[in-house]
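ligand=LARABZUK
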Amino acid sequence: MTVRVKICGLTRERDLETAVEAGADAIGVIADVPVETPREVPVDRAADLLASAPPFVTTVLVTMADGGERIEELVETVEPDVLQFHGDGDADELGDLCARIDSDLLFAVGADDASSLSRYDGVVDAFLVDTPAVDGGGGTGRTHDWERTGAASADLDSPVVLAGGLTPENVESAIDAADPFGVDVASGVEADGGIKDGDAVRSFVARAKRHHRTEVTT
Ligand SMILES: O=C(O)c1ccccc1NCC(=O)[C@H](O)[C@H](O)COP(=O)(O)O
């Protein structure tokens, strides 16, 4: 299966265009996060950036916003196809959130908690398994045990997007190890914080998409 690719943390139209031209399936912008990151943009900017994406490219709003009401407000303002939520919530709360918003819900889970994915399977629309910072934020540029994530995802119905420290150089090994539905990258294709490196974006997308997975045997 061809792996889907999301390029995340876009702050400029020209980087968004680069990602789209490179063949990215999804593009992500980050707003309303209580952590320091060069990739955060104001909410109205997030709306403008995502509105500039062409048809057939999935738009993703990444947030750590607190509370269903605030998240609902963000979705109404930004109108993303997908809401990527980095935060807490039990299955009932996430189910309520899904019912409140018009976007699909991509729930970010730390790799150390990947064994809990089955609890939310069928409740949320998809998972993103990341290597989070201690404050819960993403964009750490740190990898995790891809094989363990692959094992934790194998029997799930919901698609799993692999994230955390991916780069053009390691994305093929990551796909071999975790067999994800999609891969996601933010800092691994940057020239500087919040600024994408066009060559790295093109290389990441091309390598991820043309790669035919070989199973890793241990
Ligand atoms: O990227 C950030 O700075 C960020 C901050 C707070 C919450 C989420 C964030 N990023 C979400 C993503 O989807 C990133 O692409 C993902 O964490 C992978 O990042 P990286 O390891 O830099 O590729």
